[in-house]
Design a protein that fits this description.
With about 400 residues, the protein is an alpha/beta fold. The chain is about 45% helix and about 10% strand. Helix 7 runs parallel beside helix 18, helix 11 crosses helix 12 and helix 17 crosses helix 18.
């Protein structure tokens, strides 16, 4: 039987033709096309020179730890509850007794203005606007006071490494307290620098050096270099520049002799909330909680220190049981979606610290890129909760998640 054909009428075509005004703002155009954090990463990779992108994107040695963390998130199983009223979902929570719009916080990241010139103030402003905590790194490229001025209403945390020069570290603690930071995050998993081979191969220095290789890179990323060279020079809390690699800087500044006694001293001198970041076994979690900390971050430093270290998500249920409500428990590493955050909360995390996810947004589009990362994660959190049958973060339970019997 032959199908009869005819020409369509104009009245039939008209509803199918949808014209849209062209978006002239190039940044908005590329951010609107980014639907996932992976999309933001792809944009960031195109727009950023290799050395700073790899510093953000890479991990230690063979990058086994980072890949395992992401693999575990990919391989877990969600177990939805049906016939629940999820017409309205509230993704907010409290973190250290203060409200947070989402169960995640911006993790401390060093050298942030090297990734994109807007740097830490841009991230802090997004945190303030969104209503989530922001942690400034000891190795941040904006001062404690300038970040406080950029986002005076944000819940600001300061992340501290214990330096060989203890007086200099104490000065940072005092300045943070005076500037209104609510929380001190003591990072304890960097007695020495991990072997970050991408940085070594790229010959990355801080700030980037003008070598034949980087001059060639200028031609491929002119906007990045223009922004770097025409804005304020990169400065740090401890030095104005450093001629070597990041690993050499860490080994020069950080004290490998730190013990639990130093944590006890920190609890005495810091009156605000105290969080220890870098917990990688249950016994250490118990010990730091016994010393009076308010929170622990199960963290392998984003896979950037010891390769083949424990995967935080796998360790999470055991630490939650061991801490038994005496302190809040957070995780980081490998988080690329809002579903990852929901899974961690279901397994007992109070919140998740994200680093690379917002840095991809920063490199893709500055402050607006960070905001886009939050929008993506927020929508994924809300949708995942609805599909799981949880109207509030507090309704997420371990039964909502099954981890694979074999982690790797």
């Amino acid at each position: 039987m032959t199908t009869q054909r005819r020409l369509p009428r104009c009245s039939e075509l008209r509803p199918l033709v949808r014209t849209r005004r062209p978006e002239l703002d190039a940044t908005k155009r590329r951010l609107d096309r980014a639907l996932t954090i992976a999309d933001l990463r792809a944009v960031a990779k195109r727009r950023t020179p290799r050395a700073p992108f790899d510093y953000t994107d890479g991990a230690a040695e063979g990058e086994v730890t980072l890949n395992r963390a992401r693999s575990l998130f990919h391989r877990l199983q969600f177990n939805p509850s049906i016939l629940r009223d999820v017409s309205r979902v509230d993704p907010s929570t409290t973190i250290l007794g203060r409200p947070s719009a989402y169960p995640f916080a911006f993790a401390p990241t060093g050298f942030t203005r090297m990734m994109q010139h807007e740097g830490e103030p841009a991230v802090a402003r997004v945190a303030q606007r969104t209503g989530i905590p922001y942690a400034l790194s000891t190795m941040g490229t904006t001062s404690i006071e300038d970040v406080a001025a950029a986002a005076p209403e944000a819940d600001k945390w300061f992340q501290l490494y214990v330096w060989t020069d203890r007086a200099a570290g104490k000065d940072l603690v005092d300045r943070s307290l005076a500037a209104g930071y609510t929380t001190l995050v003591l990072t304890v998993d960097v007695p020495v620098a991990g072997a970050r081979l991408r940085d070594v191969r790229n010959g990355m220095t801080i700030p980037p050096s003008l070598t034949p290789k980087t001059i060639l890179d200028m031609g491929m990323h002119p906007a990045w270099w223009l922004n770097l060279l025409t804005t304020e020079p990169l400065t740090f809390a401890s030095l104005s520049d450093w001629p070597g690699t990041v690993a050499e800087l860490i080994n020069h500044m950080f004290d490998p002799s730190v013990t639990f006694d130093d944590l006890a001293w920190m609890r005495e001198v810091w009156p605000g909330s105290l969080v220890v970041k870098g917990i990688q076994n249950v016994d250490d979690a118990r010990k730091v909680v016994d010393l009076g900390v308010d929170g622990v971050v199960i963290s392998n430093h984003g896979g950037r220190q010891l390769d083949r270290a424990p995967v935080p998500l796998q360790l999470l249920p055991k630490v939650v049981d061991a801490v038994a409500g005496r302190a809040e428990v957070y995780i980081d590493t490998g988080v690329m979606t809002g579903a990852d955050i929901v899974a961690a909360c279901a397994l007992g995390a109070r919140a998740v610290l994200i680093g690379r996810a917002y840095l991809y947004g920063l490199m893709a589009g500055g402050e607006r890129g960070v905001q886009r990362a939050v929008e993506i994660l927020g929508s994924e959190i809300t949708r995942t909760m609805q599909l799981l049958g949880a109207a509030e973060v507090g309704e997420l339970r371990p039964e909502h998640v099954t981890l694979p019997a074999v982690a790797f």
